[in-house]
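Q: How would the structure tokens look for this protein?
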Amino acid sequence: MPGMDRPRSRRRVVLIVLGAIVVVFGLLQLVPYRVDNPPVQQGPRWDSARTLALARVACFDCHSNETRTQWWEDVAPASWWITNHVRDGRKALNLSECTGKGGEAGDAAETVRNGSMPPGYYTWFGMHANAKLSASERKALADGLSASLRNAGCGGG
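A: Here is the predicted structure in token form.
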């Protein structure tokens, strides 16, 4: 009967498509585009240990050369997005490259104070949950960044 071959051919097409997806996904992993961590040159003089601790959990993964990625952030294509995000973050402010030669670090404190940093998606699904700052932590970090980064010269790379 001609109709009996339809389920087999559909199954075969599905298996071929799934196989192709697996092969393409595997090939994507060969593209060496991952977050790198250049050597730390110099950090700012932190005004307190609390500011440094808050900056480590809320800022360092995108704004320093001490990025810690989770396992899934090293898997393409997510790794591509994460790598670009970290490069953009370091370009705006790199807390590992503070020369002490003039300049403010931009409006780092203001972005923390107004809630745009760290970005909300950074803590989605419990990832980086410790970066979800309370109002008092947000104020302490913003005040500490203002004091610590004043003329620190933390440029972008």
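The chain has a mean pLDDT of 86.

The first helix runs from residue 5 to 28.

Upvote if useful.
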